[in-house]
Design brief:
Strand content: 15-25%
Cofactor: NAD(+)
Site (Increases basicity of active site Tyr): 106
Structural class: alpha/beta
Largest sheet: 6 strands, parallel
Binding site for Mn(2+): 165, 195
Binding site for substrate: 90, 144
CATH superfamily of the domain at 2-86 and 97-165: NAD(P)-binding Rossmann-like Domain
Domain Glycosyl hydrolase family 4 C-terminal: 190-421
CATH topology of the domain at 2-86 and 97-165: Rossmann fold
Bound molecules: 6-O-phosphono-alpha-D-glucopyranose, manganese (II) ion
Helix content: 40-55%
Strand order of the largest sheet: 3-2-1-4-5-6
């Protein structure tokens, strides 16, 4: 099995490789090819992986290349985990929006649109190359904004591209735990778009346990989402939203907190990771120790800089490490070995949510086997949730159209139609601001 990792010089790649090292079964990945545009980052990460592998007999062989076509040829699985414009780009996404008084966040609102506009053309180019050079490969997309990017790639790869995120499984795990249930035994009724979904039920042995949680203010207030959204609001909703919905339900507070923060998340991570790659220039640097120290610092601040008061800093180690690399590995195993399982994934709707067309990528529990990921039928969303899902999907479609046509007018429309952008004039200025700082948006003329 050959696995190609795009964005192979990325900081999180050792997490993925660490997950691969735990897999001893027949049919596991035996070759890993790292691809990145930046040879220095590739060599830093390759050294970390070599130290990880040192004590593991039969560890997957690792090679690295800056040649994309070479990396893709013959791949069985392709993980796409790229960040177009790097973390500096993420910091720009945040700052330009905040200067306009609207949310600047990696994947949500104006920041997410800017990131999407930059990333879609690159993702489409990758999808075209995969279709040509590795037509039987499965593409697992982590690249954010994951739902939008998966949809862009699915236009060229159909259901051979599957998007993943760690947030739904993390949410399900936290809910199961407060209910005293084993997360592995629980069926999580979750649906929406990536970073825009709701848990509407959690079934254990045929019984929905969520009403018990919603009825108990102490239980409800005892975990991250309870603190973040507040007990009363969760009871009004009758569901537990993905943490990213905080940016919608408490937008004004979120924008203000971000504006007052000393540094944005992107700026913080950009500095922190630049230090890691800088330290790794020393040929004698202890690669794994240096990486691990940087990772620990990062996790300690995970999404918490503006949410400390909401208790976001209280995640335990498993929430932080049970992340996307485990979802990726579980998905790959199910496909490669035809080990049927259910995972919450980003796939084409195919009639699951009747308010969206069949090709719209949604986030939903899927049955996974050697034939890929098949969305499971779910109950419809309530109107307020359908409304949000439809508006955000409409914005995503404008982003896809702008990326295809290069039309600046369409890009303005994408920003202007977003529920978190409150004026067409703001949308116009956002396009000005973003095209001025992002070379990756030069195509918008
Ligand atoms: C979660 C989300 C990812 C997102 C990440 C940001 O894991 O599911 O989509 O990229 O948080 O974390 P960071 O440490 O980069 O702020
Ligand atoms: Mn995510």
């Amino acid at each position: 099995m050959k696995l190609t990792i795009l964005g192979g010089g990325g900081f999180r790649v050792p997490l993925v490789y660490g997950a691969l090292l735990t897999d001893r079964a027949e049919g596991r990945v035996t070759r890993v090819v790292l691809h990145d545009l930046d040879a220095r980052r590739l060599s830093a990460v390759t050294r970390v992986l070599a130290e990880q592998a040192a004590t593991v007999p039969g560890a997957p062989e690792v090679t690295a290349t800056t040649d994309l076509d070479e990396a893709l040829r013959g791949a069985d699985f392709v993980f796409s985990a790229i960040r177009v414009g790097g973390l500096e780009g993420r910091a720009h996404d945040e700052r330009v929006a905040l200067a306009e008084g609207v949310l600047g966040q990696e994947t949500v609102g104006a920041g997410g649109i800017a990131y999407g506009l930059r990333t879609v053309p690159v993702a489409v180019d990758i999808a075209r190359r995969v279709a040509r050079l590795a037509p039987d490969a499965w593409v697992i997309n982590f690249t954010n904004p994951a739902g939008l990017v998966t949809e862009a790639m699915s236009r060229h790869l159909g259901d051979r591209v599957i998007g993943i995120c760690d947030s739904p499984v993390g949410l399900g795990r936290r809910i199961a735990r407060v209910l005293g249930a084993d997360p592995r035994e629980a069926w999580i009724d979750y649906v929406g778009l990536n970073h825009l979904g709701w848990v509407r039920g959690l079934r254990v042995a045929g019984r929905d346990e969520l009403p018990r949680l919603l009825a108990d203010p102490d239980l409800l207030g005892s975990f991250e989402e309870g603190k973040l959204f507040g007990v009363d609001w969760l009871r009004s909703l009758g569901a537990i939203p993905n943490e990213y919905l905080h940016y919608y339900y408490f937008n004004r507070e979120a924008v203000r907190a971000y504006q007052q923060a000393e540094k944005t998340r992107g700026a913080f991570l950009a500095e922190q990771q630049a230090r890691f790659y800088e330290e790794m220039r020393r040929p004698d640097a202890a690669a794994l120790t240096t990486w691990d120290r940087t990772r620990a610092e990062r996790e300690a601040t995970y999404m918490s800089e503006n949410r400390e008061s909401a208790g976001a800093g209280e995640r335990d180690a498993d929430d932080l490490s049970g992340g996307y690399e485990k979802v990726a590995l579980a998905l790959m195993r199910a496909i490669a070995r035809d080990e049927r399982t259910t995972l919450i994934l980003n796939v084409r709707n195919q009639g699951t949510l009747s308010v969206l067309d069949t090709d719209a990528v949604i986030e939903v529990p899927c049955l996974v086997d050697a034939n890929g990921a098949h969305p499971v039928a779910v109950a419809p969303l309530p109107d307020h949730a359908s409304g949000l899902v439809c508006s955000v999907k409409a914005v995503e479609r404008e982003v896809l159209a702008a990326a295809e046509s290069g039309s600046r007018t369409t890009a303005v429309k994408a920003f202007a139609l977003h529920p978190l952008v409150d004026s067409v004039n703001v949308a116009r200025r956002l396009v000005e601001g973003y095209t001025a700082v992002h070379p990756g948006l030069a195509y918008l003329g």
